[in-house]
Amino acid sequence: MFSRNKKPSVPSRRLATPEPSSSVDRGSQFRRNRTLSGVRRDPMDPSHSPRSKVHHLTNQRRKLTGIFLLVVIAITLLVLVITQLTARVVIAGSSTAVTTAIDSTRYEKVINDYLGVHPASRFRFALDQKDLSSYAAAAVPEVSRITQNGSTHLVETKFIITFRQPVAGWQINDKQYYVDDQGIVFEKNYYQTPTVQIIDESGISPEQGSAVASARLLSFVGRVVALAKGSGYEVTQAILPVGTTRQLEIRFKDVQPLVKLSIDRGAGEQVEDTVRSLRFLTSKGQSAEYVDVRVSGRAVYL
User: Fold this and answer.
1) Model pLDDT for residues 230-262, shown as the tens digit of each residue
2) Closest to 222 measured CA to CA, from 255, 184, 257
């Protein structure tokens, strides 16, 4: 007969013990050989590891170095802007041969007008000196070139002006005109009066608007004087013959013949024909009263 209260044959020690219920999450319980998570420490905490402290100091040093470099760059740019800025113009001549005091106000105004049209050019490194010279030559023809020559004070820039040197002159209507070796006509001369003056024997009275034709003639004379000098002949006299303003008679130093030229033909061609003719006469031992080179390809001796 079997009893109902018979105990199971499995030993009690092998029976699974029910886990006690707890309100604490298993994931947050401490377990052996497991890394604790969710633990944070203050970097400034004395208990912080030495390695973390080194990383923290390195980051701080990098930030401070970056800020310092930005400050240095900003100061450098500011100094560069101030030292390169042209706030005031100072004028000086390029040659000691200048015999007349330079009208500085006249050229300061021209340069300031140019800087007003081109504001970026107030910085010396951005100034186009060739363009400035062209602008000035159109406003004041006696200027050949303007060169920037550093600064005298913090915001002052020194400009050296090269003036045109006249090779010939002509007085029209009580006004003196000059011309340089490039054939550029101008009125204001800072050098000695040129020895070559156009002698007007045409008998034609200057009229309104004659300055244009006179400028062309004067430009022609300037080119003839310069080209002849380059070939070894020095012009001493330029004469307008009777009844015309389109022809010219040139007299050279130590040369007997008078040379007749026309302003309607290129100055270079006529000077070449003149030099060739004079050398031919010299080689043949001949003399002539004048040499006419007004017609291309033909020279007349008399």
Assistant:
1) 999 999 999 888 877 788 999 999 998 999 999
2) 184
H/E segment holding residue 237: strand 235-240
What whole-number distance in Å separates Cα of residue 62 and Cα of residue 39?
28
pLDDT per position as a tens digit, 180-191: 999 999 999 999
| Tokens (6 digits) for 41 | 């420490």
Residue with tokens 């951005």: 126
The ranges of the chain with pLDDT < 50 are 1-2, 24, 208-209
Beta strand pairing status for 247-252 and 235-240?
A: antiparallel
Within the chain, residue ranges assigned H as helices are 50-84, 104-117, 129-139, 210-230, 267-284
| Interatomic CA distance for residues 272 and 228, integer angstroms | 9
Q: Hey, CA dihedral for 41, 43, 44, 47, is it positive or negative?
A: positive
67 phi/psi in degrees, rounded to 5: -65, -40
* Distance from C-alpha of 183 to C-alpha of 105, rounded to nearest angstrom: 26
What are the φ/ψ torsions at residue 288 (nearest 5 degrees)? -150, 155
301 close to 288: Cβ distance less than 8 angstroms: yes
